[in-house]
């Protein structure tokens, strides 16, 4: 089984043009994955790990007000990781992993939403970006392509951040959001075709 890439229209997501899991080009699976679910879940962890690792330094040094909500996301990551590590030993626990991954996605979305509110992102812009993303995901689904919920949310967050004036008071916060999505994509793409390695997705420490 292969994963593919879906090209987002530039008008829909101007920051990052590639959404992994749909469209053009072919991405090989991990050679030691148990099944497709295993490989897809590992990719989701790579994205989450890349995003949270990138955020940790910025939140710790420049945006301490987000520590509590960041730590909630880190805790959700830890629970999901434990569940996934168990799954790799006992593959029958797939349903439990799905639940914890969903909770992790929700926690990261809550963190991104906090950024959107503080950046003063336009509700109209957010709605338009989400509508475009929904349409693209629907088209992908009709083609039999599965698009990661977490990746979609990270792409949306970056697109919303890109609507913030680059010289405005919230430019630095917006840049942090864009860089978070970039870091997540780099982490995921660096493991393309490589064996699943749990040392690459270890739990994220809470910020003290």
Measured between the Cα atoms of the first and last residue, the distance is 42 Å
Low-pLDDT stretches = 1-26
Helix content: 55-70%
The number of helical segments is 6
The number of domains is 1
Can you summarize the main beta sheet?
A: 3 strands, antiparallel
Summary tags:
208 residues; mainly alpha; three-stranded antiparallel beta sheet; 6 helices; 3 strands; globular; disordered N terminus
In short:
The chain is mostly helical.
Would you kindly provide a written description of the structure presented here, covering whatever features stand out?
This protein is mostly helical and 208 residues long. It has one domain. The chain is 60% helix and 5% strand. It contains six helices and three strands, in the order E-E-E-H-H-H-H-H-H. The chain has a three-stranded antiparallel beta sheet. Helix 1 runs antiparallel to helix 2. The N and C termini lie far apart (42 Å). Mean pLDDT is 82; it is low at 1-26.
Write the layout of secondary structure elements.
Layout: E1 3-7, E2 18-20, E3 26-27, H1 36-61, H2 67-87, H3 94-119, H4 123-142, H5 149-161, H6 171-189
Antiparallel strand pairs: 1-2, 1-3
